[in-house]
Each structure stands twice: as C-alpha cells, then as structure tokens.
Write a structure and sequence with these properties.
799 residues; secreted; Ubiquitin-like (UB roll); alpha/beta; Crinkler effector protein N-terminal domain-containing protein; Crinkler_N; 4 domains
Length: 799
C-alpha cells in the first residue's frame, strides 16, 4: 500500500488543497477524505463531482494561468473541456492517477454541484402518440417527395456550422397555421441529429402534437423564467454579444449543455430527431457560454445537433422572453430554427448592430396526401375522389390543416351511403372545415381575428393578378388592387395570411436595420390567392352554415354586425375613396352580397331568396326578411315587384351562384362542377364603384343585377338618379335590367321622373318597407331601379 498526495482545486473558486490517501483505495474514499479536509463542503459531499486535471496527457501545474483565473470565479474555456469525463467512485486510485502525482501539480478538479436533475419523457397517452406517429409519417412523406426543399434547409444548416460566425445567424420558418411548419420539423433527417420542442407553455387546449413534448417545453420555459430575461434591459437581451450572453451563468445555458452531453453520450447517434421514449434524467446547473461552447466542440463535425423551437411568438411572454430563448443558442454557435405564425420574431434585433441576421423560409412544401388510418374511411375516400376528381383538385390546392378536415369529412359522409350527391357532399365538408377551423384557431373570438377575417373576405390584400381576367369581364373592368402591405402582420398570427416572399431569403442586420440585397426589408403579409388555398375561400370565409361568427349557435351575425364589431378602417383598397368610411361601406356591401349568395350552399340560391337574405345582412342579427308595402301593409315578394318586366320575368328563380370573394377567380376545376349541379360564380367590383354579379351559366347575357354605391352617404336626388341611369346605359348598354342603388335616403323624385320605360321602387334596408316611386305603363316596362335606403347605419355611429 502506497500513500499518494492528491492536489485538488475547487472549480470556480480556485481554492487548492491536498489530501493523502492509499493508492489501493477507491475514489469513494477520496471523496470522504476531501469531506474531512475541506470543511466548506462537508455537508454537501453527495453533490461533488471529480474530474481529472489532465490536459494533453499532463497534469495541470499549480502555476497555470487558468488555475489562477479560477480564483476570481471564472472557469476558462480551456478548463471547461476537462469537465466532461467524470471519475467514477468505484475506480481505484492507482488506476486513475497515472502518471503518479508529484508536487506543484493539480490532479483533481472538484466541482460542487448546485444544479438539479430533470426528467424528460415523451408522452405515453395513446391519443397523443397517434398524433406523433401521424406527424412522423408526414415528415417521412415530405422528405421523400420534397427532398429538394428539405435540402435547402439542411444545406443552410451545414453551411452555418462549416463557416461559423459570431453570433450565429438563425433560421426562421414563418407561416400561418396549417401550412405545415410542424410537419416540416419531422422531415429534416439524414445529416445530423436535432432537438424539437414547442417554446410556448403547454396545457389544456394545446395541439395534441405539442403535448408529446410537454416535459421538454415545461423544463425549457422553467429555466427561462429562472434566468428572468423579462427584467433585463431589452437592448441587452436583443444584443447577442451583450454581457448577459458573454459572461453571465445562465440556467438556460445549463439546459442546452445537458442536451449536448446527452446527444454526445451515444456514439454514432442517428441523424434524426432525438426523442425520449424512455424516461431520461439530465443534470442541469447554471453555466457560462464557454461551458456550452466546450460541450459543442467535443462533438464530431456532423454530430453537432440543431434545434427547432416551434410556436415562437412575442405574444407569449413578451419580446424579451422570445428573443432570449432564440439568442442563447446563437451566442453558443448553435443553429436554431424558430418556427411560428408571429412575423415579429423576424425583427427582434439590436438597434445598433451589423451582422448576418437570418435565413427566412416563408413558403413550405405542398400538402402531401397520405392514406387515412381508418381503412374503411380510406376506402370511402378513394371511392369519392375517383367518382369526383374535383375533390383531389381541392386537396392539392389547399393547405394541410384544411385538407385534413376536408378529407376526413368527405370520407365520413361517403360512408353513410353508396349514392352521394356532390353538392350535398361539398356543403357538408365545407361546413365541417369552416367550423373545425373556427373552433381550432379561435380567430373569431378576437377583435384582430374578426378584422383579419373581413380582410380575407374582401380579397384586397392579394396580388392584383388575382383579379378576373379581362377576357371574361364586360366593361368597365374591375378595379386593380394595389398590393396592401399595411394590412398588418398580425393577420398571419390570428388568421391565414402569409409573408409575401415566395422563396427563402438571407437577411442582414445593418446598424439595426434589416436588409436584403442592399434594400430595406421588413415583414409584410398578404392573403393567399384563391388557387393557392382554395378551401380558405370555399369554406373558412363562409359556407352554407358557417358564416359570420363562431358563436353562430347562439347568434347569427349579419354582415353589418360583423363590420360593427370590427375596425372602421379595415383595408386600404381604394385610394380614391372620399373617406375611410366609404372603404368600410364598400367592403360591407360586398360582404353582404357575398354572404347572401352562400346561404343555400354550392347549388346557388334563387334570386328571390338571395334578396331576402341580402336584406337580412343589414339587420343587427341575420334572418330571412319579408318585405311589406308601405301603403297596404301587405307582404310583397320579388315576383310581384318585377311583374311585367320582360327581361326580369325569370329573375325570381334565377340562381345566384356561390360567389368567390370580390374580383377573385375560381379555378377551372371549381367552375366545371356546374355539370354536377354546383353553381359557382364571381362577384366583381368595378372601377366606378359599381358592384355586379357574373352568372357563370350565361356570361354573355343580361346580368342578374348591378349595384351602385357611390351615393351611399347622401340624400339621393333626381340629378344623381339621372347621372346613374346615363352611366349605366353608357357602360352596360343592354346588359342591365335591374340595378340596386344604395343611398342614405332618397328625396321625393316622383314628379321629376322622366324615364317612362324604367320603373323605380324604394326599399328600406332595415325596416324592409316598399314604396313605388314610378311604375311604367303596362307593356312598356323594360328596366327597374331599386333604391336601397340604408338610413343611418350603426357602423358609422360608433364613438
């Protein structure tokens, strides 16, 4: 038995002391000897960790500058790399201390543990695990079918690790709900391992896929709160080179280091998402950036993982929290991908720095159809898409979230019987998609959500190319839409707008300003074109039974009611409008026509019912209205009003189609469903503020009706009326037979009426009272002017 003198140094304190012990004993007895020798740690012997103080095969010298640096509480990066190979208590001292220790050497680095153990475990709930399998299968499908897209992200990750800069740029995947962000997180395998978890706090109501990562999310947010970035200056949190990241010991750093150590604990770890199917205990304590960097440097070139933080939003915890959670990875030279619907995460930057900032991916792979888990449903879906190919066209041209609802409902509906009518099938499926989206996203419960919903319906925030092609539109042509970036990036978070970029871009930070290719950049959003997300416009903006508000079971919101609960100035679609109130009115009128056209589903709606529904859209609560003659107090219908007008004889039963949003074009595969009994059409708003409906069954014939809204806020007198009729005859010639003229009130023009073949009737939009102004002599009726008296609308009387 030989006595050896072991010299120890306390990590982070620099205290040096020696103990004598027999070399035949185990490290357990060395632990006890240290307890007896160094009184400060006697009560914490079970919290000690030992590391060999050996660098490049040699013991550290007591004169080493790094050892001296520990006296100030610093742990130099060169020593951090030694703190990974712990000495086991069962090891014999004679086998551990080779070569034999001598004087003026440090042999053991003693770490007094002050951290905590956490347990990570994937969910065991069957429902959650089924959702996890669904996303894994989707990820495999995306990687298989959209490999080029995945390679763009993986190439960027490899490039960032191959040519690192400090701070590390991040990758941002930003898109509205249902575009496939989370599915993409499961598709990035093949080159290096990665970690994924939602950055938000999870609980009841969270998406099932997120709940599989509950323990991960919980611990990450717990350590964030311990570091308390919310109480620190915002500029320091935004600046990745500030003292917070460079010098402070952070719990979040400790969490990241523990993950790196876990990743490195298994040799030849597969290049896939790291999961915790078995409960895993990890030790986490506050540490410095140097400690995380040291852990990263110990890993092989392709073994360093990347990290995906989903649902990143400053709305959950504030700017400081989300910027801090992103920047702790960047400060350590680790690639982090932040995903979310909040476009503001792209610009949480220091106000004075110049650096490579981020790579933005704003377009995701298209939806990849997969077999349904339920075999009976899958068989029903196959049968339906073979019978009605339009179903697959709809799926291919919509986002995944809507597709999932749509396919599920189509299959369920088809299972009820062998004979399935396409109109009934679509009505049921659209209703299910709309209501599932309302309930899942909850945008109709929020003021910003309601406003965004109105913007989507107005269709003013898309490229002007989405307007109906001039070849199908009689003059005057529809108004061109100028791109409206002012709608607000909140439309991506609360609704279904997306960033305008159609390919990934690299963004620089130049003195605090975001820049792309030398041009100032900021996030701007637009809503998808119809052909990009057809279910958004077929179902989510309103179908047969899913119009208005999510509270429809309690209250049927009319178009006017929807606008009264939203902002007065909701879009900037008409730069020539006399006032912002007109913008609101014009959109409300288009919304009323749009909604009334859909109240009977995809078959279209007879004009007489459409008109009663249109009047209902101007009530506080939607209901089918009945018209009353003012002089007789008797009920009167559309058929009686147009009696004698040859061009309007068929009008009451003329089908008003299921309309697209204003100036939007249905794809051909939607229009062609008329052969199956569907009736889809277009709502056109022309440059002179007229609104008319184009009936797809007779594009060249007389229009079902025209609307004129240019005098909505005035008392309509005979001079205005003459101007309107002159304009209609000039622009539309023989193509018009019925016009609805919207005004606040009409003066008595009976004695001044000169058009002997044109009748005129006034209808109160809210009280539905009918008054004839002029009725042509029997046999001479050609055209009819219906003055829609609005009165003082509540949407313009709010304080």
């Amino acid at each position: 038995m030989v006595h050896v003198t072991i010299v120890c140094a306390i990590i982070g304190k620099g205290n040096v002391f020696s103990v004598e012990i027999d070399d035949a004993q185990s490290m357990y007895y060395l632990r006890q000897a240290i307890e007896e020798q160094y009184e400060e740690i006697t009560s914490r012997w079970d919290r000690l960790q030992f590391f060999l103080a050996k660098r490049d095969g040699k013991w550290l010298s007591t004169d080493d500058s790094d050892v001296a640096a520990m006296h100030s509480g610093e742990v130099p990066e060169s020593l951090e790399v030694l703190l990974f190979e712990k000495i086991d208590d069962k090891d014999d001292i004679c086998n551990v201390f080779v070569p034999t220790p001598r004087t003026k050497e440090i042999h053991v680095l003693v770490k007094i543990c002050s951290g905590e153990y956490i347990k990570l475990k994937d969910s065991e709930y069957t429902t959650w695990m089924n959702e996890l399998k669904y996303y894994r299968d989707r990820g495999e499908c995306i990687r298989r079918n959209c490999g080029d897209y995945c390679d763009q992200i993986l190439n960027k990750i490899d490039n960032l690790y191959e040519f690192p800069v400090h701070p590390m740029p991040f990758i941002c995947v930003a898109a509205s709900s249902g575009m496939g962000k989370t599915q993409l997180a499961f598709a990035l395998g093949g080159r290096r391992p990665w970690f994924y978890w939602p950055a938000i706090s999870l609980g009841q109501g969270s998406q099932l896929i997120y709940l599989n990562f509950f323990s991960f999310s919980k611990e990450f947010n717990s350590f964030t709160w311990k570091d308390d970035p919310m109480k620190k200056p915002e500029e320091d949190i935004l600046d990745t080179t500030s003292e917070i990241y460079e010098s402070e010991h952070l719990w979040t750093y400790g969490f990241i280091r523990a993950l790196l150590e876990h990743c490195n604990s298994k040799s030849n770890r597969p290049a896939q998402m790291i999961c915790f199917e078995e409960e895993t205990s990890l030790y986490v304590e506050k540490c410095s950036r140097n400690s995380v960097v040291a852990a990263r440097k110990r890993m092989g070139k392709n073994a360093v993982p990347f990290f995906i933080l989903d649902e990143m939003s400053e709305l959950y915890g504030g700017r400081n929290k989300v910027a801090f959670q992103r920047n702790v990875f960047r400060a350590c030279g680790l690639v982090v991908i932040v995903m979310g619907t909040d476009a503001n995460i792209t610009k949480l930057a220091s106000h004075s720095k110049t650096e490579k900032w981020m790579t933005l991916f704003a377009r995701l792979p298209p939806y990849q159809p997969m077999d349904l888990v339920n075999e009976e449903k899958q068989a029903a879906w196959i049968r339906m898409k073979e019978q009605y190919p339009v179903l697959m066209d709809i799926v291919v041209n919509s986002r995944g979230r809507f597709d999932k609802y749509f396919v599920d409902k189509v299959a369920e509906f088809a299972m009820k019987g062998e004979s399935v009518n396409l109109c009934d099938l679509l009505n049921n499926a659209f209703d299910y998609v709309g209501n599932s989206t309302y309930n899942g996203k909850g945008f109709m419960y929020k003021k910003d959500g309601k406003d965004a919903h109105l913007m989507a319906t107005a269709y003013t925030n898309v490229d002007h190319e989405s307007c109906i092609a001039s070849s199908t539109v009689p003059e005057p042509r529809p108004k061109k839409r100028k791109f409206a970036g002012v709608v607000g990036t909140q439309c991506m978070h609360v609704h279904f707008a997306n960033l305008v970029e159609d390919q990934h871009i690299d963004v620089m930070l130049l003195e605090g300003k975001l820049n792309v290719d030398g041009v100032h950049w900021e996030p701007r959003c637009r809503f998808p074109k119809v052909e990009e997300d057809v279910l958004l416009y077929l179902a989510v903006v309103g179908g047969k039974d899913s119009l208005g508000d999510a509270n429809r079971y309690k209250y049927k919101y009319s178009a006017m009611r929807m606008f009264s609960k939203g902002k007065k100035h909701i879009t900037q679609d008409n730069g020539h409008a006399l006032s912002s109130d007109f913008i609101t009115f014009e959109n409300m009128l288009a919304q009323a026509i749009f909604c009334a056209s859909r109240r009977n589903g995809v078959r279209g709606i007879p004009f007489k019912d459409f008109f009663y529904g249109l009047l209902g859209e101007f009530q506080n609560e939607f209901k089918w209205m009945e018209m009353i003659m003012s002089d007789t107090r008797k009920s009167v219908g559309v058929t009686e009003l147009v009696a004698g007008y040859n061009d309007l004889t068929a009008l009451p039963d003329t089908m008003i189609p299921f309309l697209a949003p204003p100036n939007a074009t249905w794809p051909r595969f939607i229009v062609e469903t008329r052969d199956r009994g569907c009736n889809f059409g277009h709502l056109i708003r022309a440059t002179n503020k007229d609104v008319y409906v184009l009936n797809m069954e007779n594009e060249d014939g007389v229009l079902p009706f025209l609307c004129v809204s240019k005098h909505w806020d005035q008392k309509l007198h005979i001079g205005m009326m003459k101007e309107i009729i002159l304009g209609l005859n000039s622009a539309w010639k023989e193509k018009w037979a019925l016009v609805l003229v919207f005004c606040m009130k009409m003066t008595d023009i009976r004695l001044d009426w000169e058009e002997q073949s044109i009748g005129c009737v006034k209808i109160g939009c809210q009280n539905c009272r009918v008054d004839w102004i002029f009725q042509p002599i029997a046999g001479h009726e050609k055209k009819l002017v219906v003055v829609m008296e609005m009165g003082s609308l509540p949407i313009f009387n709010q304080s």
